[in-house]
Design a protein that fits this description.
The protein has 327 residues and is an alpha+beta fold. It is built from 8 helices and 15 strands. The chain folds into 2 domains: 124 residues, Immunoglobulins (Immunoglobulin-like); 164 residues, Rossmann fold.
Amino acid sequence: MMIRICFAVLYLLMPAVALAVQANVNLDYNPQKNTDNLIPFSAPLNSPEVRDDRTVTFRLRAPEAKSVRLAGVAVLTALGGSDRSTQFQKGDNGVWTLTVGPLEPDMYIYHFNVDGMQIADPSNTIAGFTAMPPYSQLVVHGDGPAYYDARDVPHGLVTRHVYQSGVTNGQRELYVYTPPGYDRQKSYPVLYLVGGSGDLPSNWVYDGRANFMMDNLLAEGKAVPMIIAIPNNQVIHRNHPQHAELTFDLFEQELRKHVIPLVESQYNVIKSPKGRALSGLSMGGRHTMFVGFRSLDLFGSFGVLSAGDTNCETSIATFLNDPDVNK
């Protein structure tokens, strides 16, 4: 009888545990919604707290601080960039609080600025670890899972490859997504996806959720099955004084000597430009422009995302005027 009672108690408790704020039990679409007034494990406070009306409350315990502000280009842009709207108010208990919104459902990067020092939110377990200091992530949920959330659909696999590079003279990593039902008897197109100045390959998976996006697109019949290869396009220190002069040649060498040969030796893919696409964000967009556009023997499709080039007619004039490109 006692065993039955224990199981009944556990059954009643399970929903509360699974749904608590930042429980990290499931891949929830609303991970920062406070349902049981529990504080995230090892955190001093509940922050951020996201409500169904899409308002958000941030909290920070800093009794000796003189000023606390919300920082981060993405979230400030969503708030309209008002300086007044980012100032926290200090309570008698030494806890600083700021409520903002409503915000559009999305994922936002943010920091706290405490007396001029930028820090990640010490109560937020959802953080990004990249090629730059860590940041916090705000997940404003909608009425259900978004296109980037894990849904109850068939999921592909993500494999991490580690290899020795003769270009950078060290061990490097490469992430590869294979679609659900990957068949070694078929040949798949490959999207080579690269990140920005502060990104690592893992960020496309853990922060960008490229694998979940592709799972959802495939389930909805909006994409063809493909492989996504995510190499590390950090090939020289980002603050090297000659970064702009060296990065493009080095990344091209890395693609030709290591990345593409590894992918094409481990996976059944289309080994021609028509089967390869290169796409990148920010610095990766510039890699796509300045490496991809001059490598038409490798790539037949391109995606340039927020590359920040305001003079493309000059910077890629050779590509734009190439008769082979404009056929």
